[in-house]
Amino acid sequence: MKIGCCASLDQAVMLQEAGFDFLEVPVVSLMGENQQQVNERIKAYQDSPLPVEVCNILLPGSLKVTGNQVDQQALDTYLAKMLPRVKEIGADTVVFGSGGARTYPTDFSAGEAHRQIVHFLQMVAWYAESLELTMVIEPLNREESNAINTVLEATALAEEVNHPSIKVLADFYHMQKEQEPLTNIAKADRWIRHIHVADSNRFAPGTGSYPYHDLREQLESIDYHQRLSIECQWKDMEAEAAEANRFLHEIF
Fold first, then answer.
1. 3.40.630.40, 3.20.20.150, 3.10.450.50, 3.60.21.10: which CATH number matches 2-251?
2. pLDDT tens-digit readout, 54-83
3. Which regions of the chain are under pLDDT 50?
4. Which residues contact 215 (CB under 8 A, 6 or more apart)?
5. Fewer CB within 10 Å, N or C, the chain?
6. In sequence order, which residues have a C-beta less than 8 Å from that of residue 204 and are 6 or more positions away?
């Protein structure tokens, strides 16, 4: 299994030396004030000593997917501009977390929010297919979003959209936070295409009490051997990175 890390480009050398296989970077980091700035950022990612294979934070929080402030034209324009940049830097997977963008107002219809999310995923699928990208739906705990809180909810959405470019991410931290059974990974089975991990209190893997062997068992049950990214709060990234990587290689 490839082990990667959600990080910034200036941490790539350190993470390469720590033994990681790839970087996961924000889609929003590919935005720029002008085309020259965008080109420079794309070139910097292309030249990264650690390949960029996954992009997260698909949308800025101000670009709403749900609620009364949704601007479909703005969403379409953004996807048409940003997803080709994802492809250009070498990534093939995009994470749809974006809690701020998908959280809907408390007085808004949950059913309408669901319909809006399905419509957005269909928009993404159209662009993703032409670019040979996969978008994975990331469940978030209820403190970060009121939409899509479990792996099974994400899987039901993927099934409803029913497009080969739309899959699901299982995030160990959010599953533990929501007390979601890890056995839901096995239930999601063929829809799982990416994994995020952290440990207790969202610190580095291996520093807490999360049941990593149980996670491994569930991933083995669906024959998952693709990618896994650390997404955590580091106390001292440079000091902890190599040990976290070693811990994950021992587990997986």
1. 3.20.20.150
2. 999 999 999 999 999 999 999 999 999 999
3. none
4. 172, 182, 185, 197, 251
5. N
6. 198, 230, 232, 234, 235, 240, 241, 243, 244
